[in-house]
Structures are given as C-alpha cells and as structure tokens.
C-alpha cells in the first residue's frame, strides 16, 4: 500500500477541486459540467475509502500506545480491538487496490493466456509447465475461473504450447504485464566451465475477442504461405507447409501451426542479429551424430561454437545479399556501400562454412595479427580534422569520443532538389508496384532515374519485375557489376536512363546531367507512346506538344478517330487536364468539372514531379526536373539515406527524391508496432492505398535517430571494451618497436632472465609444489584430476591410498556426467543412444557392453558395471612412482635441473635447498641471487663466444668453396673487430680449436677486460672531444651511426658513455641479430595467440551478466590476466631459446659448381654477411630444389643424387660440364 498512500493526497486534492468547481456551475459549459460530474462520481467511493483507511490507521497508532502504557485490563481490550482494526485495514487495502488500479476497457472481458516453450528443448518445455502451474495457482488465489482451451504436452510432463481462458474480476489488468519472453538461467553443478544454460518461454495475455458477424470476401483476405520448421530447421525443410491468413479490414490474423509442431526444431535463427542457436534437441542430435560424447566435456568444448557458425552460414548468411560467388571465391558484400570487400574473410570458421555451403574451394582461415578500433586509431593522432558530406548525423559521437565539433558547411550552390514525403504501403507487393509505376512515369517523360536498393538480391529482383511489367531498358549496378561501375555511372544522367543500384551508387559518385537532342527526345517519346509515330522532328514545339496531348487523350479518355478529330485543341487539352486533376490532386470532383485550363494547370503545378500538363521540347535534362531518386526502403541510418538523395541536385541542379516504405519492411518492423498493422485497416486503409504526410516522414526520421543513438551506444560500448586492448597494444608495440630498432635488447633480455628466475624460485620453493606435482602425476598416470590441497605428503602408503580414493571419486563424477548424455530417466528408453554408449564404454573402461545387453539393463545397472570397471582400472595402476616426490631434495633437484635446461648452468641442489633454521623468505632471496648470478654469467660468456662461433661457421662454409678466400675474410673481420694484424697465411696454418680460442680471448679482452674503454678514451683524447671528428671515428671504427648533433654539447663522461655504447653494439652485432630474430618470432606468435584468446573472451563474457556481474569489468579482469599470461609465455620462451638458438650463416652454395675465377665474386663478405644472417637455410633449400627441378627437366628417367647435382651444376655453368665433388664428403673429411 506504500505506493497507493503516495497518491492519497493528490486524489483528495483533486476531489476538493472538483467539488469547488461544481459549486460554481455558472462558469461551466454543458460538456465540462458532464465531465466533472463523471469524475466526481468515480472519485467519491475512492475518497470515502481513503478516509476510512486513514481513520483506521490513526486508530491503530492510538491502540498501540494504549497497549504499551495501560494496565492489563485496558491492554486486553486494546489488543482485541487492534486485531479487528488490522483486519479492517487489510480489507480496505484490497478494496483500494481494486479502485486505484488503472481500468482497461478489456478488464470486464475474459483473458486469453498463451504459453509457448522456446529455446532449450526439454528444459524449455518443463519451464513452460512451471509457468502454467504458477498461473493456475495465481488464478485460484484470486478466485478466477481457469479453463484450458488447448494444450500440447511432451513426453517428459513438459508443455510445448497451452492456451487458456481466464475469467474473473480485473483479470486482464493484472496479467497484461506478463506478456513477453520469460527466461531462466542455470549453472549445473557438473559444469566446470561455469557455462550458463538458458531456457525461455513466451507468454501472451490478450483480451477475449467478442464475436462479430463479418461478411468475408475474397478480396479482403491476404494469404501467405511459408516454411514451417522441420528436421534440420527451415534451411532443410523447403516445403511451404504453413499458412497465415490476414483479414485486411479488421487486421485479424489466423495462422496454421499444427504442421509446425509435428517436427523437431534443432536450431533457432535470429536474422536481425545474424545469429543462430542450437536447441537442446539440436545439441543432442549433433552429439549423437558425432559419436564423441558430451560437447561440454574436455576437448569437445569448441564443437557448439563451430556448429553454430556452420548454422549461421547455411541459415542466416544469404547469397547475393551478404556475399557473392565470383570466380570460385566467396566475396563479402559491404552492407553499407554494397561494394565487394575482396580479400576480406569472416572469422572463426564462418567464411569456410560459407565456402562449403557454396561448394567452392575452402581456403585456410586467416587471423588478424593486429587489431584496433577506428576510434582508437584516430585517437593516436594529436590533431584531427576532416571533411565529409554526411557527418552531421554523427555529430554527438564526434564530440564525445574525439572532442571534435561538426560544422555544417553550405554547398557552393543552393540545393534546389525537392525531397518528397515518403509513401507508406501496407505490404511489400503494393510498394513494389508503386515503385515500378514511379519509374515508368519519370522514364516516359525522359527523366533519368536512380533506384536505390539495399541488397544485390533486391536489385536483381526489381530489375526482373521492371523488365517483365514495362520492358524498360535499364542498368543494374551492384557488387556483381563493380567492374562496370564507371561506365554505368557515366551514362546514368542521360535521357530516360534508369539505374537500379545498391548503396554503392550512393557514395562518392557524381551523376552528370546530359544535354538533350531534339530528335532523341522525339524518338524517346514515340517509343514510350507519348507521341504518335507520325510526329516529325521538323514540327514546331507547339505542334509536337499538341500532338502529344491528342495522342494521350486517345489513350486515357477513350476518344477514337473522328470523335477525337471533331474536338478542338483546347477542348482536348481541357478534358485531359481535368482527368489528370482527378488522378493527381485531392480537388473536389464538382470543382474539377467546372475548372478551366489555367486552373487545372495551376493545380497540377503543385503536384511534385508531374510535368505532362506542360509538355515542351527540352534542351537539357535539368529542365525536365533533373535526376529523380527512388528509395525502395529506409535504412536504419539517416546518413545512408542522405547519401542516396545526395546523388541528385548536385551543384545547384534540379532534382527530386522519394522513398517508398512498406509496413513489413525490415526496418519498419523495428519502428512500427504490431497494433499499427491492425489499426490502419480499421481506419479504412486498403491494399494499394498509400499514406503520404510530412508527419510520417518526420516520425520515421525520429525513429532512425533513435536507432542511430542505439548504434552509437553500441560503438561506445565497443570502445570501452577496446580500452583493455588499447593499453595492451601500447605496451606490446613499445617493446616490439625497441626490438625492431635494436634498442635496449640486452636490458630486455636481462629483465626476462630476472623475472624467470624469480618465478621459478617461487614455484619450486613453494610448500604446495610437491602436492601439485603429485596431482599432476596422478592426472597423467591415472587420467583423473586430484585436488592437490587435499593431499598429505608424508607416508608413501598413505599417499597411494589418497591418490586412489581421489581417482575413484573423480571417475564416478565423470561417469555420471557422460552417462547422462547417452541414457537418462528424462529420455524414453527407445531413444537411448546405446550404440555410442557401447563404443564409449569400450574406449574409456575397456568394457565390452553389447547393445543387446544394454537394452536389458537399467541406468543403475550400467552405472554399477562401469563403476566397477573404473575402480578395477585404478586398482591395477602402479603407484610406486610417487615415491620420488618424498625425497628430501626433490624440489631443489627440480630447480637445479630447470636452471641447467634453461641457462645451461650447473648448480648443486644442496645449495638451493632450505638451510636449517632459515626462514622461507631468506631462502628464496638467497636462491634467487645464486641462480641469477650464474645465469647472468652464462649470458656474459655467450656475448663473448657467440659472435666468434658465428663468424667461424660462416668462414667454414666459405672454405668449402675456397679456403684462401675464407682465410682472407676471417683475417679482415678479426683485424676490424679486435684491431689485430692477422694474415690469411697464418690463419691457414693454425688448427681450428687454437684459432677459436685466440678469438675468444681477444673478445674477452674487449668485452670485460677494459680494451674497449682504452680505445674509446684514446679516441676522445686524439680528437679533443670534437663531435664532428668523433662522429666520423664511430662510423669508421664501429660501423655505427652517432650524429654530431647527438654528441654536441656533452661533457666527457656523457660522450664516453655514448661511444662505449656504440662499441658494445659493434661487439655484439651477431648476437643482436639473433636476439632480434628470436624476440620478434616469439613476440609475434604470442601476440597472435593472445588476440585469438581475447576474441573468445569477448564472445563469451556477456554470459557473466546472468551471474549479476558487469561483463565489461569481467572482460577487463580476464584481459589483464591473459596479458600477464602472454608476457609470461614470451619470457619463458625467450629465456629458453636465447641460450641455445643459433642462426645459420647465409652463403651461396651454388658457387661450388662455378669456375675458380668466379668464386671470389660469389662468396660473401664476413663484415656484411654477419649483420644479415637471418635468411640462411630457407634460401639454401630453395636453391637446392631449383637445381633438382632444373635437372629433372632434361630427362624423365630416374637418376641418382650425384647425376641430378651434376645436371644442376652444368645448367648453372652455362651448359659446360663440371665435376662436382660431394659437399658431404668434404664436410666429413674436414671434421675428421
């Protein structure tokens, strides 16, 4: 009653005002007096009840005080009276509720309640049954009569559909708000992923219609046939097996649905959302066909998503609307422009499903490696400005997202285009007929017409209708004819041109209006039957105009031969003008009969687009009225409609436009309510009638504005979701850019090493590490998941007992979940999937259960057999392997092994184990220092040795071709790098190990023993700190760039630091190349996987809303966790590879077959090749394959490897035979 009490004062105040007005009746007219008396009579019982209610409420307060303060005798009387007052208050509350509920004219009628089960199969039908029971109980409480008119039940005591008649007081007013879709969400206890199962049912509450005697005629009925759902859905059931009959004058609809309810519905389609969903029956059938058990267990979780994408491809995405097939490829059509989006693909297998549907070659799925919303892309720029013709409709978005104002700049010439009000029809058929007539009337006069459609399918359909009905020559411009776009648009402004186009004609195209030749115009009018064949071009303008009037009068007025000749020109024209006034204007017929020629001409001048009453020979298209735009339906965005209109009336030219709308258009289904379809026929509107008024046009535009606001909110919501990726993109690409530029790579590697060591120590030194390892061992060996927190690490036998106990419990739970997919009490026994159950039992538990045996067993018996088999398997498992986890140094050994595998360092496990009396934090700190020092030392050694080993490998490959050249190149590299004075001859005389050790010693001197420091100090002293000279010295000595601007104005310490940095970069050139290669490969692969995961999260995070969680917050939380996981993956893979990876030097191998004098030109320079080493082995393989193919072209007979190589070498040597010694033998001999 709280809500009603707030109304009491207003009601009493209104009642007093009415009393005062009735006491002063002198100022009231009769109509006002009658209205006030009616309101007074309605409010009187309400006000009296309110007064009683307030009096009783005050009495209750007084009695409550008496009970607290009075003696026992008075208290007893007060309690008795208080109880009576409370009963009275309850009765008054019910009475007030009846009086104050807003009355509906249908309240006195019986109400029809209809409940239909929706998505969810058996669960949805059970939910519908629960709703039915609820409404039955509610009717009993309110003493309503509840009568079942029809009911369709399922085998599981569920309800597919039920219709009831409920009669009683205020039935409709209390139940009418129940109409709509009712949903229930459940998270099963066996669902580990937290997936929400949703079931729905629709409830409709309607007032019972009164019986009306109607004389139904065939012309008042519209009959529509359509496909009902059947096995596989509407995409499979192609038979028109359902019918809908509409009585146009009353709007009553009768739909036959008995045929529909006889089929199983496997999926549902939401075309406006481009979505398709499997029903419960669909999931069950798919699981049965796949034979892999439940889709919601283990690795099967992706199947529902893939199946729904396949359904979308077959049932939602339509050929020639959403895509076209060209040259064996599926090409997406832009929904806004109608243009082909060549090279674009839908994601998540949707594109491949469409290709399978169209039976074309299925391409590999592409994945985007970098994504950014358009808004965030533009926000990267510090300043934004632009120019467009249609941005005014998105002014709010520009202001709120980018902080930009939208200024509407007027055109250079005043727009004189006449935009006529929309024409609205009841049905699509009437609309298309009116569009054809509109095209014909303008085409007959010679005006060019541009017809805008929303899809390829509709443009081709209209083209076919126009040809069939009026045989008008025209062009079709859609995604299939995009190659001819320029040619079609070039001629679209010529005499009588008709172009039917999708939205692609509404963007960035200027249609130039052509000149009109006299002979061309006369010939066109003759072809369109506006001039007789005898008309001559030489006739004067007045004669041609009069010939046209007489010719049209003969056709439209039925005047023939002598009768027409007997009439004078003015009389013929007057009759024709009166006929046109009757057809084109709303003037009274009597007034038209008395109208003169001048009056008729003035009246027809006010009819937009009508010019036949002023026939003349035109010189230009603009004189006829310019280009006429015909819109076949409204788009949900005003911008698209404005773009279509904007093709006409450009540069100050004449033009006109008009949109044709049907109430059953896709867009009008959003704008117009269901009652409108029923109300318009009741108002006298019949099929073929059209509504035209500026109010309706404005209403449609207001509705479009609402849709634009909704779309803006969607884009704004998308931007909020992209905020997570924006931060992640900035972080990721900042690191990647540094790697590309070769900046701070050493620091990045050090950071990864430090983080990896700390995480490893946290993991291996944690108290839960050993229980976690035991649980993982159980998962691998027992194929069950064991809760590590429940394991007690101590005695071996106790640990085995725990493992087997947890394994049995896990096996029973998995058995219960999976068994329900094959046999269940909710499914009739004849529908049990015994075949797949038998297969699953054999594969999972090695139990041979024949189907014939299963038919004789119930669920409990099958469960018992499989449980015994599972227990037997677990008991047979050997668990002695868990003994290793009880060793004292098990965790320390694992950590030492991890360090050895990761960094190739050897650390004793005893030094990593906790010391006696040492705290865990101190242990971790000490162990981290030990491992990190060893890892950094190993990395320092690699900095010294890797460049030497790489250059020696390259020299070795060159030596296979020419040892002298290899020695010369190696001497040049060593002299340049370490300022040595080596000669090629001395290098050839030394053994490889000695040579390698000498280079490593020199590298050690430069890296760690101060050699680089002394060279830099000497250079600064010799050049006196001159930035120009030092810049040249850095370029010549280190091969690095240090501009004089960077060195200008620095003190000696800063100058020395820069030069040392350049020297370090020179010393680690080869290692930097390797690290860049490794980092880029790992970063790009991890980023690609991260984007895929983020897409999956975005698709599924909306389900968190069912658990009363904000999906955006959940997306941010999940996205942050995934980004941290990606960074950990990058760190682990980098630290794992950076100590092991090697690049293969890139040396041309085909020079082996060249002559001696050509070898010196073909081999590489170690100084340059070592800096571009990343393209090694792949190129070598390509060269070898090319050589083998070249040799194979000469003969088809089988040849040995030596013969193929010799043939390849001969071809490379311009046909001259060459003796090629086996490279393998050379390597083998050299290694020995």
Protein model, in words:
- The chain has 1232 residues and is of the alpha/beta class.
- It is 55% helix and 9% strand.
- Strands 14, 15, 16, 17, 18, 19 and 20 form a 7-stranded parallel sheet that branches. A 5-stranded antiparallel sheet has the order 2-3-1-5-4.
- A hairpin with a 6-residue loop joins strand 12 (329-333) and strand 13.
- Helix 2 runs antiparallel to helix 3 (72-100), helix 15 (541-556) crosses helix 17 and helix 27 runs antiparallel to helix 30.
- It starts with a helix and ends with a helix.
- Mean pLDDT is 77; it is low at 189-193, 229-239, 257-262, 1149-1164 and 1171-1232.
Oligomer: single chain
Largest sheet: 7 strands, parallel
Tell me the number of helical segments per DSSP (H or I, 4 or more residues long): 47
N→C terminal distance: 103 Å
Number of strands: 20
The shape, in one word, is extended
Low-confidence stretches: 189-193, 229-239, 257-262, 1149-1164, 1171-1232
What class, by secondary structure content?
Answer: alpha/beta
Fraction in beta strands:
5-15%
The value of Rg in angstroms is 44 Å
Overall mean pLDDT stands at 77
- The helix content, as a percent range, equals 55-70%
Question: What are its keywords?
Answer:
1232 residues; alpha/beta; 47 helices; disordered C terminus
Overview in brief:
55% of the residues lie in helices and 9% in strands. The protein is an alpha/beta fold and 1232 residues long.
């Amino acid at each position: 009653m709280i809500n009603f009490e707030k109304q009491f004062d207003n009601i009493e105040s209104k009642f007093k005002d009415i009393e005062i007005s009735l006491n002063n009746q002198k100022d009231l007219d009769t109509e006002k007096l009658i209205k006030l008396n009616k309101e007074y009579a309605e409010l009187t019982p309400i006000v009296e009840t309110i007064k009683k209610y307030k009096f009783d409420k005050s009495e209750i307060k007084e009695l409550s005080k008496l009970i607290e303060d009075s003696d026992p005798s008075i208290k007893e009387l007060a309690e008795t009276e208080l109880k009576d007052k409370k009963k009275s208050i309850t009765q008054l509350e019910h009475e007030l509720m009846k009086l104050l509920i807003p009355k509906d004219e249908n309240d006195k009628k019986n109400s029809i309640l209809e409940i239909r089960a929706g998505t969810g199969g058996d669960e949805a039908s059970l939910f519908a049954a629960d709703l039915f029971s609820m409404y039955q109980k509610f009717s009993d409480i309110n003493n309503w009569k509840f009568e079942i008119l029809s009911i369709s039940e399922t085998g599981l005591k569920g309800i597919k559909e039920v219709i009831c008649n409920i009669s009683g007081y205020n039935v409709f007013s209390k139940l009418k708000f129940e109409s709509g879709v009712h949903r229930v969400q459940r998270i099963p206890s066996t669902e580990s992923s937290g997936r929400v199962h949703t079931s729905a049912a629709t409830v409709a509450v309607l007032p019972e219609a009164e019986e009306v005697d109607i004389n139904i005629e065939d012309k008042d009925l519209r009959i529509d046939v359509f496909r009902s759902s059947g096995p596989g859905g509407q995409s499979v059931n192609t038979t028109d097996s359902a019918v809908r009959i509409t009585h146009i004058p009353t709007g009553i609809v009768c739909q036959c649905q008995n045929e529909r309810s006889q089929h199983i519905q496997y999926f549902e389609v939401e075309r406006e959302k481009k979505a398709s969903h499997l029903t419960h029956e669909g999931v069950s059938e798919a699981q049965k066909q796949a034979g892999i058990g439940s889709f919601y267990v283990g690795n099967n979780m992706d199947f529902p998503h893939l199946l729904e994408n396949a359904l979308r491809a077959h049932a939602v995405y339509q050929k020639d609307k959403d895509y076209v097939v060209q040259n064996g490829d599926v090409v997406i059509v832009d929904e806004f422009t109608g243009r082909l989006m060549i090279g674009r693909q839908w994601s998540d297998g949707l594109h491949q499903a469409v290709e399978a549907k169209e039976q074309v070659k299925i391409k590999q799925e592409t994945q985007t490696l970098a994504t950014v919303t358009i808004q965030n892309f533009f926000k990267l720029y510090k300043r934004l400005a632009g120019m467009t013709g249609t941005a005014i409709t998105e002014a709010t978005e520009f202001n709120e997202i980018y902080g930009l104002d939208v200024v509407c700049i007027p055109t250079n010439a005043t727009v004189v285009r006449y935009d006529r009000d929309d024409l609205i029809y009841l049905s699509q058929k009437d609309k298309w007929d009116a569009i054809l007539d509109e095209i014909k009337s303008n085409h007959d006069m010679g005006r060019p017409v541009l017809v805008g459609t929303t899809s390829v399918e509709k443009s081709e359909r209209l083209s076919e209708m126009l040809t069939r009905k009026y045989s008008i020559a025209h062009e079709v411009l859609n995604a299939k004819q995009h190659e001819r776009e320029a040619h079609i648009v070039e001629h679209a402004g010529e005499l009588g041109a008709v172009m039917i186009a999708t939205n692609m004609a509404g963007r960035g195209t200027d249609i130039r209006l052509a000149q009109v030749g006299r002979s061309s115009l006369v010939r066109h009018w003759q072809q369109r039957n506006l001039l007789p064949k005898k008309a001559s071009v030489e006739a004067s303008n007045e004669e041609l105009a009069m010939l046209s009037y007489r010719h049209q009068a003969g056709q439209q007025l039925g005047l023939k031969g002598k009768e027409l000749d007997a009439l004078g020109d003015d009389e013929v024209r007057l009759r024709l003008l009166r006929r046109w006034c009757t057809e084109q204007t709303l003037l009274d017929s009597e007034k038209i009969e008395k109208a003169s020629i001048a009056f008729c001409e003035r009246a027809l001048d006010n009819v937009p687009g009508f010019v036949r009453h002023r026939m003349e020979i035109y010189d230009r298209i603009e004189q006829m009225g310019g280009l006429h735009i015909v819109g076949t339906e409204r788009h949900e965005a005003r911008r698209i409609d404005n773009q279509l209109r904007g093709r006409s009336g450009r540069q100050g030219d004449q033009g006109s436009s008009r949109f044709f709308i049907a109430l059953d258009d896709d867009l009008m289904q959003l704008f117009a309510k269901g009652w409108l379809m029923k109300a318009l026929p009741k108002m006298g509107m019949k099929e073929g009638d059209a509504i035209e008024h500026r109010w309706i046009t404005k209403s449609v535009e207001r509705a479009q504005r609402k849709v634009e606001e909704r779309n803006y909110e969607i884009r704004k919501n998308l931007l909020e979701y992209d905020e997570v990726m924006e931060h992640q993109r900035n972080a990721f690409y900042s690191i990647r850019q540094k790697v590309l530029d070769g900046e701070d790579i050493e620091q990045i590697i050090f950071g990864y090493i430090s983080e990896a060591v700390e995480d490893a120590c946290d993991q291996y030194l944690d108290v839960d590490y050993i229980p976690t390892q035991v649980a993982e061992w159980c998962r691998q060996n027992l194929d069950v998941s064991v809760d590590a927190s429940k394991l007690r690490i101590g005695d071996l036998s106790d640990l085995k007992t725990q493992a087997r106990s947890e394994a049995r419990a896990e096996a029973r739970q998995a058995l219960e979940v999976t068994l329900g997919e094959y046999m269940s009490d909710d499914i009739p026994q004849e529908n049990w999937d015994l075949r797949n159950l038998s297969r699953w039992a054999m594969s999972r538990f090695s139990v041979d259960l024949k189907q014939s045996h299963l038919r004789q067993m119930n669920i409990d018996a099958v469960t018992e057999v499989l449980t015994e088999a599972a227990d037997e398997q677990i008991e047979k498992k050997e668990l002695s392997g868990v003994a290793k986890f009880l060793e004292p140094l098990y965790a320390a050994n694992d950590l030492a092994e991890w360090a050895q595998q990761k960094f190739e360092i050897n650390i004793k496990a005893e030094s990593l184990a906790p010391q006696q009396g040492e705290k865990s934090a101190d242990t971790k700190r000490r162990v981290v220092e030990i491992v990190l020092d060893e890892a950094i030392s190993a990395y320092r050694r690699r900095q010294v040795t890797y460049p030497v080993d790489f250059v020696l490998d390259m020299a070795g490959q060159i030596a296979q071709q020419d040892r002298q050249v290899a020695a010369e190149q190696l001497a040049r590299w060593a002299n340049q790098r370490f300022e040595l004075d080596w000669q090629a001859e001395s290098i050839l005389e030394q053994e490889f190990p000695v040579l390698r050790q000498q280079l490593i010693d020199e590298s050690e001197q430069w890296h760690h023993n101060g050699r680089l420091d002394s060279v830099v100090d000497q250079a600064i002293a010799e050049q006196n700190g001159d930035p120009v000279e030092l810049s040249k010295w850095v370029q010549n000595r280190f091969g690095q760039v240090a501009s004089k601007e960077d060195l200008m104005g620095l003190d000696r310490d800063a100058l020395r630091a820069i030069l040392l940095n350049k020297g370090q970069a020179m010393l680690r050139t080869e290692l930097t190349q390797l690290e860049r290669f490794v980092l880029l490969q790992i970063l790009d692969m991890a980023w690609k996987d991260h984007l895929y995961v983020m897409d999956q999260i975005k698709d599924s995070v909306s389900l968190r809303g069912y658990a009363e969680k904000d999906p955006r917050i959940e997306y941010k939380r999940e996205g942050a966790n995934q980004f941290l996981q990606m960074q950990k993956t990058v760190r682990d893979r980098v630290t794992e590879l950076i100590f092991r990876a090697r690049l293969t030097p890139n040396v041309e191998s085909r020079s082996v077959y060249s002559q001696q004098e050509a070898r010196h030109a073909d081999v590489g320079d170690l100084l340059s090749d070592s800096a571009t080493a990343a393209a090694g082995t792949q190129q070598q393989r390509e060269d070898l394959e090319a050589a083998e193919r070249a040799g194979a072209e000469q003969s088809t007979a089988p040849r040995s490897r030596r013969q193929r190589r010799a043939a390849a070498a001969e071809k490379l040597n311009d046909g001259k035979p060459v003796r090629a010694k086996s490279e393998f033998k050379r390597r083998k001999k050299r290694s020995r």
